[in-house]
Amino acid sequence: MSRRATRIGVALALAGAGVAVAVSARSGSDEAPRPAGPAANPQAATPGHLPALSPARPRGLGCAFEVGGRFAWRFEVAVRLDLERGALAPAGTPKQGVDVVESGAEGTLEALVLAVTPAGEAVVALRATRFSDTPPDAASAASAAENWPADLRKPVLLRVDDRCRTLAGARHRDTSILAWDRLGRLMDRFQFMAPPEPAPPAEDGTARPYTTRHTDTHGASVVSNRHVAGPGRGALARRRLRYEVADPRVQVAIVRAQSTLTLGDAVWFEGLDESQIVHTRMSGAPAFQSAERARFAAVSPDPKAFAGQDLDLSHYVWGRPDAAALSTARDAQGPAGLRGEPLETAWGHYLASAEKDWFGAQKRLRAWLRANPEGAAALAAGLRAGRFAPREAAALTLALAKSGSPEALAALEGLAADASLPENLRTQAVSALADAPHPTLNTVDTLVTIADRANGPTSLQDLVGSAATMSLGNLVEGQVAGAPADAARAYLESRLHAADADRVAEALWAVGNTGDPAFLDTVATKAASDDPDLRAAAMHAARKMKHDPEARALVTERLRVETHPEVAAEAAAAQREQLGASGRLSAHELNLYRSKLVGAPEPLRREIVLTLGAVATQQPEARQILAEWYPLEESLPVRQLIGRFVPAAMLP
């Protein structure tokens, strides 16, 4: 196999990597002292009594509830997420495209006040008399749980204090927590905060702004509020200032966030109009953009809205389910609803939704494979018969791997090992085995047999054997210590000492997928080879060893002494990945890059610009090097690349 074929195999092994990005919502809270909410799963309350009530507090912009009071809102909520599929790729990776997920809900909510305490707190029942919900997984959810639509219309309870703050929520004990989670996100819109004490007006007579702390789908945030005088109790104008994200890898930028809550004369509120655009980055790379809009408008309630409903408080469970409970519920209900569904139906669902929502379509197909273990063999038979186009076959092999079922893993191993199948299908199956969540020793044996090429090249281009070697590297990276990962690691180590230089280079590229510093001694030996292909492969092998100072020193030294442009470019790319999102270049390394720019060929200059650009925001000296080089750069694409990292004011 040629070295060019080796690199093609690497590309195939890495193709199809995705990011998944995940979103959740919780109840809000303000910065003032707040009564403790009910525990997540307390003992059922005595009928007609309220749990954990707080003492009376100043009313502020408060509410006055009456038992039996009724009110209602018509609502419309729309959410759009633009998910960056290449979000976690190294800097400079070509953009892979954006997946758009849109969902919406609209209908009418009726409210009935069940009980009021002397402290002014109330329990209010809410029921959606009309509810149209279109989340991305609505079709699969509806088919998975027959009571889903009915549960969306069951009453839920909110606990509201005398300042109109929503303190807690409760669902009926027989309601699906998946439906409760969906409604809970809607009810989070009811969160609005009053100041602990009425503040004196400013000198110009306007109300003083006050700050509160909320929580929504993006986490805790700080909001500036201002009371605006008007009819009834006036309105609250709100502006979200910032998000408080604990994870240092995640940065949330608010592009726009505004909200107006109309208090009017109603018991609670009369209208809500809010919008928000948020951009989120993960490890410095764009992850997703969200645009949300919500409108509520007061309407006349239907006096018969709660007729025949069970409103006994002892039947309700207070608190939002946690992430683990939601995940368990999805696993329990999703596959069960797909049990017995024919393959033709499952594939039809995939085709109908894959173009618009590839992630959702893949999720459903994987759930179908878990619910119908025998379906893996049927799917493999269709692949063997050439029933699916190459793009569809790639999606199916990935679904087989990601489903995690032993039957799917065995079917995939059979496809990978069958020498009579087309090269493209076998390569897809081999690459997909690296994504299996629970590989076995048999999985490793299958890949090792293919990678060994005991009977010569595995195919005309030898892509299958190359992809098998790369998958062994990915398997080491993705697994905790154990027999499969140890066996794959031992095989790669043995391959690094082979007599065939092409096989050694291929193993080094696979080691680059592991990030395992245990290979470093051997990698350092190959980095000093007379063969530039082996030196370049050694630099690639060190790229994921981000937390090992010896790996960092190895790459820096190779960059200093290297005269071959392709090897130097690989070293620069390796150092960029070692830096990660928060690394810094030393003064020695900065000067090294400054000197390398002079006389370097365009591919190497591009890698140097990308590496300096990766630290430009936190190291002004790196940005200065780029600005000084800009007028000397002859390549328009490289000049444009510099413009990504250097403000226009610094460029001539």
What features would you describe in this structure?
The protein has 652 residues and is an alpha+beta fold. Among the domains are: 70-88 and 96-197 and 208-314, Roll (Lipovitellin-phosvitin complex, beta-sheet shell regions); 336-484, no CATH class. It is built from 23 helices and twelve strands. Helix 10 (406-417) runs parallel beside helix 12, helix 11 (423-433) packs parallel to helix 13 (463-478) and helix 13 packs across helix 14. The longest helix has 16 residues, at 323-338. It is flat and about 85 Å long. The protein starts with a helix and ends in a 7-residue tail after the last helix.
List keywords for this structure.
652 residues; alpha+beta; Lipovitellin-phosvitin complex, beta-sheet shell regions; 12-stranded antiparallel β-sheet; disordered N terminus
